[in-house]
């Protein structure tokens, strides 16, 4: 009932002053949730720079951070679509592995080798659509469905390479994984992996904020029953978001394959879903759906990459890195709760 | 009835400089039913929350219980002071038993283990006294709404409360359950409890109230004793003006009535709706009356395809249409305003702009799917101006608006598709009097423009005030139709007779 208090206080807020103050507060709230973790990211960067005695802000190290963030950014972008509808996709790590295996296997066939990239993408899309169909049409809980495919698709990934590591040192489009786009010759370049990640973020933003489908995604996450009554095809929205998540996992698989020239169905992408979810939540997207932004996800993914990179730079042991990252996840969810208190849905 | 049990003197409460309550004096005696009335936003909830300890009043006022000044602090403060509140939305845990709910927060344990037996025995006498037809060991999830209310009352009695505050207790009760509740309230009054009864419904206040206190804009504007309780006096106090022109019906039901637009024939869902047919003509406002649970909302859901039908068909402007989802209904031009705007209507976190445009995004979009933001903005601005929606701007989340403004936002979404048929389910529930009359005039104007309108409402004066004829449902069937005579208005008793299936009804 706390909203009663607000509505009781409302009638008096008709003065222009009150309305202006209300707008300002509203803007502040939007700004805070939009900026979200950006200050945290900056503080982390500066902190690591100082603690590592100036080794963080170097062209080379920043390149490494961007490259390390790339795959997780792509996975987290897909995860953002899913979590915005109030769902979850636990299977992205497995789908990534299966897609990479499918791509690499195909790339070794001389006449079809060039098709490995679309094959990896389609493999991811296919698994994603199956997830979506199970969730939307059979109305099974997303957690259960994707927990199942986490295991099943991992099995398929191993099956694809007969449970061995598949190598292809001459894989086409290898520049995706290891090349850089030269911005200013000899001065500035940016890894292709990072370019792809940024493009994925940009496309996601366009879809979420500039298309009818985007509004429908937010609507389904905000209130699924109301969305149904408002004439939104909820099933189609759900299949779409899980399809996107699968497609981006497939893209992540292709990126990994091009980078490593190899894939192993058992090891590749293990527990990647956790990093992706962490990035989304760190980015301010609410776990209950309907609230969040793709830019937040980018910031979240960068925080994770900066944490890993910075902790290594300052010589924190591998074991403590786990502890610290875990605490960051819990802190992020605590923030999520805190943020929800300020929203209309109390 | 000599010494008051509760006295409030000069109690105020402000939120961020806005006065929600201004120096309210309220006196309640033991053994009386004191009705508290007022529009939404008049300060009833704030007053209640002060008594329950959820809010702390501004300094300066005084609250006395049985003559002693008290400070009510924290959620348990009210109960400690002998005050229990039964909220509109009941606060029971459905997964626990009746006894566990009554003892919630004060469980009896023996060496660390729950003493379930003792607890069950402890609540037995109270349940008997209330005439409960269920056991202490029953799961609350298996109880009807009326029975759950009884559990709430039992909880209050068990806490030895002397003052019982009830907030719109009959909202989700059937007529029979309401009658039983009234009898129980009278019994509690005879036992010496003071009951503060908050309600919007005039008939309940007539039936129960020993005194009526009316709040408006945070002020106490008047108290009436039993002989002076009259509807027009109360409404005048609540609104602060004469409301003879409250219900607006300028459209001409005879001349304006056009061809049949919506015809539902023999609709059934296999459960709550058992073969219902009705027709709505262009420019006509048809009321759909009936008791709660008669199947009115379910029939509306069948018409718009929100639930699958087991039989029946639909004709739109004389042509058969097959509508299987709410989306198809909207495309065909049938819009439905839900009775539960928070759960089924609005997206509270989304902006008013998005909420208003949601149904026409696809129609407006460029290249089929790219949002046309200028058009959306324009439409939202038009809706804000046309329906006088009051909010800082179209970008604020819908959840921050008052009930009346939320309802107008939701209505704007439906009007955006320019519907041929508009089904309004409890259009003024939880809406203040000002917004109510605005909604009535919107309905009137739509009828003038030729829209076929079906209004589901439990508020009989509203149905009579704005409708041209009334179809009455009872237990899933159409019980009959009430029309107006040449010079006689729609008759409330005729409607109630059909709705209840009795020839005679008092109360």
UniProtKB/TrEMBL annotation, chain A:
It is a multi-pass membrane protein. It is found in: Cell membrane. CDD domains: TM_PBP1_transp_AraH_like. GO terms for cellular component: plasma membrane. Keywords: Cell membrane, Membrane, Transmembrane, Transmembrane helix. GO terms for molecular function: transmembrane transporter activity. This is Ribose ABC transporter permease.
TrEMBL record, chain B:
It is found in: Cell membrane. GO terms for molecular function: ATP binding; ATP hydrolysis activity. GO terms for cellular component: plasma membrane. Keywords: ATP-binding, Cell membrane, Membrane, Nucleotide-binding, Repeat, Sugar transport, Translocase, Transport. It comes from the Bacteria. InterPro entries: AAA+_ATPase, ABC_carbohydrate_import_ATPase, ABC_transporter-like_ATP-bd, ABC_transporter-like_CS, P-loop_NTPase. The keyword Nucleotidyltransferase does not apply. Residues 6-242, 256-500 form the ABC transporter domain. SMART domains: AAA. Signal peptide: none annotated. Belongs to the ABC transporter superfamily. Involved in beta-(1-->2)glucan export. Transmembrane domains (TMD) form a pore in the inner membrane and the ATP-binding domain (NBD) is responsible for energy generation. This is D-xylose ABC transporter ATP-binding protein. The lineage of its organism: Bacteria, Pseudomonadati, Pseudomonadota, Alphaproteobacteria, Hyphomicrobiales.
């Amino acid at each position: 009932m706390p909203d009663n208090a607000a509505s009781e206080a409302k009638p008096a807020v008709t003065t222009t002053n009150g309305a202006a103050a209300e707008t300002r507060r509203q803007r502040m709230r939007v700004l805070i949730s939009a900026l979200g973790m950006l200050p945290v990211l900056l503080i982390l960067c500066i902190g690591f720079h100082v603690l590592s005695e100036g080794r963080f802000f170097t062209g080379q190290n920043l390149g490494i951070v961007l490259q390390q963030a790339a795959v997780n950014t792509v996975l987290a972008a897909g995860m953002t679509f899913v979590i915005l509808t109030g769902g979850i996709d636990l299977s992205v790590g497995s789908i990534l592995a299966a897609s990479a295996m499918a791509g690499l296997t195909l790339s070794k066939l001389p006449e079809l080798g060039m098709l490995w990239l679309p094959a990896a993408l389609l493999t991811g899309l296919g698994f994603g659509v199956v997830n979506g169909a199970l969730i939307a049409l059979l109305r099974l809980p997303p957690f259960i469905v994707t927990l199942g495919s986490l295991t099943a698709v991992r099995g398929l990934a191993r099956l694809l390479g007969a449970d061995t590591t598949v190598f292809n040192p001459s894989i086409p489009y290898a520049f995706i994984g290891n090349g850089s786009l030269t911005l200013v010759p000899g001065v500035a370049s940016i890894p292709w992996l990072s370019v792809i990640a940024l493009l994925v973020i940009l496309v996601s933003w366009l879809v979420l904020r500039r298309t009818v489908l985007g509004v429908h995604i937010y609507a389904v996450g905000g209130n699924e029953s109301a969305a149904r009554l408002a004439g939104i095809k909820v099933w189609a929205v759900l299949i779409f978001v899980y399809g996107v998540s699968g497609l981006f996992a497939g893209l992540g698989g292709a990126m990994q394959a091009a980078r490593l020239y190899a894939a192993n169905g058992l090891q590749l992408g293990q527990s990647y879903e956790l990093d992706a979810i962490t990035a989304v939540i760190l980015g301010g997207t609410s776990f209950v759906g309907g609230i969040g932004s793709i830019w937040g996800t980018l910031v979240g993914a960068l925080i994770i990459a900066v944490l890993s990179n910075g902790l290594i730079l300052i010589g924190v042991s591998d074991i403590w890195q786990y502890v610290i990252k875990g605490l960051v996840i819990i802190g992020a969810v605590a923030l999520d709760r805190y943020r929800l208190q300020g929203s209309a849905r109390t | 009835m000599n010494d008051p049990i509760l006295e409030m003197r000069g109690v105020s409460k402000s939120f961020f400089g806005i006065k929600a309550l201004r120096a309210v004096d309220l006196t309640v005696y033991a053994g009386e039913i004191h009705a508290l009335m007022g529009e939404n936003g008049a300060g009833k909830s704030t007053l209640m929350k002060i008594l329950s300890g959820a809010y702390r009043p501004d300094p300066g006022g005084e609250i006395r219980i049985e003559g002693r000044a008290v400070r009510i602090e924290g959620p348990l403060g009210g109960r400690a002071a002998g005050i229990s509140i039964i909220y509109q939305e009941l606060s029971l845990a459905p997964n626990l038993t009746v006894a566990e709910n009554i003892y919630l927060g004060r469980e009896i344990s023996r060496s660390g283990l729950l003493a379930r037996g003792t607890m069950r025995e402890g609540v037995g006498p109270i349940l008997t006294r209330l005439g409960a037809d269920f056991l202490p060991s029953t799961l609350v999830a298996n109880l009807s709404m009326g029975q759950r209310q009884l559990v709430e009352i039992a909880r209050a009695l068990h806490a030895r409360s002397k003052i019982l505050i009830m907030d719109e207790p009959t909202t989700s009760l059937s007529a029979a359950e309401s009658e039983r509740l009234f009898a129980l309230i009278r019994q509690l009054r005879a036992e010496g409890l003071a009951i503060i009864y908050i309600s919007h419904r005039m008939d309940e206040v007539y039936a129960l109230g020993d005194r009526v206190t009316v709040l408006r804009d945070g002020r106490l504007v008047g108290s009436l004793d039993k002989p002076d309780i009259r509807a027009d006096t109360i409404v005048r106090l609540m609104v602060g003006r004469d409301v003879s022109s409250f219900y607006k019906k300028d459209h001409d039901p005879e001349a304006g009535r056009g061809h049949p637009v919506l015809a539902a024939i023999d609709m059934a869902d296999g459960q709550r709706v058992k073969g219902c047919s009705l027709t709505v003509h262009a420019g006509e406002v048809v009321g759909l009356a009936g008791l709660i649970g008669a199947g009115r909302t379910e029939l509306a859901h069948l018409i718009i395809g929100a639930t699958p039908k087991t039989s029946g068909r639909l004709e739109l402007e004389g042509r058969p249409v097959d509508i299987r989802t709410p989306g198809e209904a909207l495309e065909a031009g049938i819009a439905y305003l839900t009775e539960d705007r928070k759960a089924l209507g609005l997206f509270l976190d989304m902006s008013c702009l998005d909420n208003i445009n949601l149904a026409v995004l696809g129609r407006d979009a460029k290249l089929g799917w790219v949002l046309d933001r200028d058009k959306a903005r324009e439409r939202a601005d038009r809706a804000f101006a046309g329906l006088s929606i009051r909010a800082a701007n179209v970008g604020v989340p819908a959840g921050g608006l008052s009930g009346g403004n939320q309802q107008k936002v939701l209505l704007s979404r439906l009007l955006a598709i320019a519907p041929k048929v508009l089904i309004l389910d409890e259009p003024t529930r939880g809406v203040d009097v000002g917004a109510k009359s605005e909604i009535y005039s919107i309905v009137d104007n739509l009828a003038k423009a030729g829209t076929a309108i079906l209004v589901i409402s439990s508020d009989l004066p509203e149905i009579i005030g704005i409708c041209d004829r009334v179809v009455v449902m009872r237990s899933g069937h159409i019980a009959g139709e009430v029309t107006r005579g040449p010079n006689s208005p729609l008759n409330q008793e005729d409607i109630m007779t059909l709705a209840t299936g009795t020839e005679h009804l008092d109360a």
